[in-house]
């Protein structure tokens, strides 16, 4: 799996998309920490080792699409990461893709790299026969929401959340 995007008149480096490998795990774990911080704020799990282990279990596993983007001149240094998991609806048996992650370093051409990654994920999902894709995004993550919309994703569900103070404390007893 690979894809490329060139600089055109922008002066940006050329980027390629390739399958993620174990050599990429440190960079991927850092992306996962950033995603967690954007999504969960102070409650984010920021232990890169935990993210490394979780992602490491998906690399090369059937049904998992794990891709990184890198500058053509430095293919071993990921500047972006995307992960889609193949799933089966327990009621209908239909296969679908669950978008787990997409992150790009804060670099010039960040939007271009995000588009390149998402396009590569969509191609891989098509090749895998996944005809429906779902993904969650934090309500305040306007960049990812715009990227999803640009590629034809539509909002279908809204998760509502409320934090309630307990009168029982952490131990569960008054």
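Sequence proposed for the structure above (174 residues):
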């Amino acid at each position: 799996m690979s894809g490329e995007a060139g600089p055109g008149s922008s002066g940006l480096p050329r980027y390629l998309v390739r399958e993620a490998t174990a050599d990429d795990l440190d960079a991927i774990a850092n992306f996962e920490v950033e995603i967690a911080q954007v999504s969960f704020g102070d409650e984010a799990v920021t232990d890169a080792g935990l993210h490394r282990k979780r992602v490491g279990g998906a690399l090369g596993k059937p049904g998992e699409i794990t891709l990184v983007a890198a500058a053509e001149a430095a293919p071993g240094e990921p500047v972006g990461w995307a992960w889609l998991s193949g799933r089966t609806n327990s009621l209908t048996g239909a296969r679908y893709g669950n978008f787990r992650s997409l992150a790009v370093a804060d670099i010039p051409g960040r939007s271009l790299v995000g588009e390149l990654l998402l396009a590569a994920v969509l191609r891989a999902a098509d090749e895998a026969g996944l005809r429906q894709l779902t993904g969650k995004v934090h309500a305040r993550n306007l960049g990812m929401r715009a990227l999803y919309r640009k590629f034809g994703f539509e909002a279908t569900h809204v998760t509502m959340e409320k934090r309630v103070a307990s009168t029982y404390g952490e131990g569960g007893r008054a």
